[in-house]
Design a protein that fits this description.
Number of helices: 12
GO molecular function, one term: methyltransferase activity
CATH architecture: 3-Layer(aba) Sandwich
Shape: globular
Mean pLDDT: 91
Helix content: 40-55%
Keywords: Lipid metabolism, Methyltransferase, S-adenosyl-L-methionine, Transferase
Pfam family, one: Methyltransf_12
Largest sheet: 9 strands, mixed
InterPro entries: CFA/CMAS, Methyltransf_12, SAM-dependent_MTases_sf
Low-confidence stretches: 271-282
Protein name: Methyltransferase
CATH superfamily: Vaccinia Virus protein VP39
Number of strands: 9
Number of domains: 1
Bound molecules: S-adenosylmethionine
CATH topology: Rossmann fold
Order of helices and strands: HHHHHHEHEHEEHEEEHEHEH
Distance between the termini: 40 Å
Length: about 280
C-alpha cells in the first residue's frame, strides 16, 4: 500500500513555479531557503565537481549548528529519537537478530545506530560516514548511551567502494536518508560494490526520495528518483531491488528499496550468519 500523496510524487521542486507556490504557502521558510541557497552556491564553487567534498562541507556547517538537525527532521530531540526508533522497529519487524552483522552507510550521529549497537552482539555494528564532524557526534552518542563495551566500528570514508571491508560479511546493510542526498554516480558506486560485502541471503535496505514525475534535485543537497531508475541500476550489478510497501505506511516522507543478490533466496534473518560463519568472534 503506497500512501504518499500523489501531489508529492509528481511535484518538481526545482521548477520556479513550484518554488513560488511553496513560498506563498510557507512564507516563513523563504529566508532559511535563501540562506541555504547562498551556502550551496559558495560550497559548490569551492568543491566544484566533487559531491562528497561538497556534502561533507554541508554536514560540517549543519553539525556545527545542531547535530540533531544535521541528520534531518529538525533540531527536536523527540523527532531524532522517533526516527531512530522507526528504523530500529522496522528492521526488528523484519527479523533482525543480535547475531546479524550490520553495515550502516551514512550512520550520522547514530540516531538509529545506537539502538542497533545496543541490540547486536559486540563488534557486529559497522558505521561509515563521509563526515568526520558527524562521526565525532556519533562518539558522543555512544558515550551518552554507555555503549563502549559493544565495540562498534565507526569509520570516515571518502567514497562508497567499500574496499576496506571483507567479502560476504554483512547480513544487513542499511542506509537511511543517504541516497536522498546523493547524486546518481554516488548511488551507482555503492550498488557496484555493496554486493561484494553482502553475505549470501543478506539484504541492503535504503531509503530514497521518490518521484513519479521528472527526476530532479534541489540545490546540491536533495535528489528525487523514480523507483525504476534505482531498480535498474541495482540490476546492472547483479542485484535485485524490491519496493517495501510496508515502509510506506510509516510516517516518513521517503520510500524504501530492499536489495539482495539476484540469485538469493528470501532471507531468513540470522540464518545467513548460522549458515555461512558458524563462529563469529567479536
Ligand atoms: C540525513 S543524514 C542520516 C543519518 C542516519 N542515517 C540517520 O538516519 O540518522 C545523512 C548522512 O549520510 C551521510 N552521507 C551522505 N552521503 C554519504 C556518502 N556518499 N557516503 C557515506 N555517508 C554519506 C551524511 O554525512 C549524513 O551523516
Amino acid at each position: 500500500m503506497q500512501q504518499t500523496p500523489a501531489s508529492r510524487l509528481s511535484a518538481n521542486r526545482s521548477r520556479l513555479g513550484h518554488k513560488v507556490r511553496y513560498a506563498l504557502r510557507h512564507p516563513e521558510r523563504v529566508l532559511p531557503y535563501l540562506r541555504r541557497a547562498g551556502r550551496d552556491s559558495l560550497l559548490r564553487l569551492r568543491h566544484r565537481g566533487n559531491h562528497v567534498a561538497y556534502y561533507r562541507a554541508v554536514m560540517a556547517s549543519d553539525t556545527a549548528r545542531s547535530p540533531e538537525a544535521a541528520v534531518g527532521g529538525g533540531p527536536s530531540r523527540e523527532r531524532w529519537l522517533a526516527i531512530g526508533q522507526m528504523q530500529y522497529d522496522y528492521l526488528l519487524g523484519h527479523g533482525l537478530t543480535p547475531r546479524d552483522r550490520m553495515l550502516e552507510i551514512g550512520c550520522g550521529n547514530l540516531r538509529a545506530g545506537w539502538r542497533f549497537i545496543e541490540y547486536l552482539e559486540p563488534g557486529h555494528y559497522y558505521g561509515i560516514d563521509i563526515s568526520p564532524d558527524i562521526l565525532i557526534e556519533a562518539k558522543k552518542t555512544l558515550v551518552q548511551y554507555g555503549l563502549q563495551a559493544r565495540l562498534p566500528h565507526l569509520t570516515p570514508v571518502q567514497d562508497l567502494r567499500l574496499d576496506f571491508l571483507p567479502d560476504a560479511w554483512f547480513t544487513v546493510v542499511h542506509a537511511h536518508s543517504v541516497f536522498s542526498h546523493s547524486p546518481p554516480e554516488v548511488i551507482e558506486e555503492c550498488l557496484a560494490h555493496v554486493g561484494r560485502v553482502l553475505a549470501p541471503g543478506g539484504f541492503f535496505d535504503f531509503t530514497f526520495d521518490r518521484t513519479e514525475g521528472a527526476e530532479h534535485r534541489v540545490l546540491g543537497e536533495d535528489f528525487y528518483y523514480r523507483t525504476q531508475t534505482l531498480v535498474r541500476l541495482a540490476e546492472k550489478y547483479g542485484l535485485m531491488a524490491r519496493f517495501m510497501d510496508d515502509w510506506e505506511r510509516l510516517p516518513h516522507g521517503q520510500s524504501k528499496l530492499r536489495v539482495t543478490h539476484a540469485v538469493a533466496a528470501e532471507r531468513l534473518p540470522g540464518a545467513a550468519v548460522e549458515a555461512e560463519v558458524p563462529s563469529v568472534e567479536p
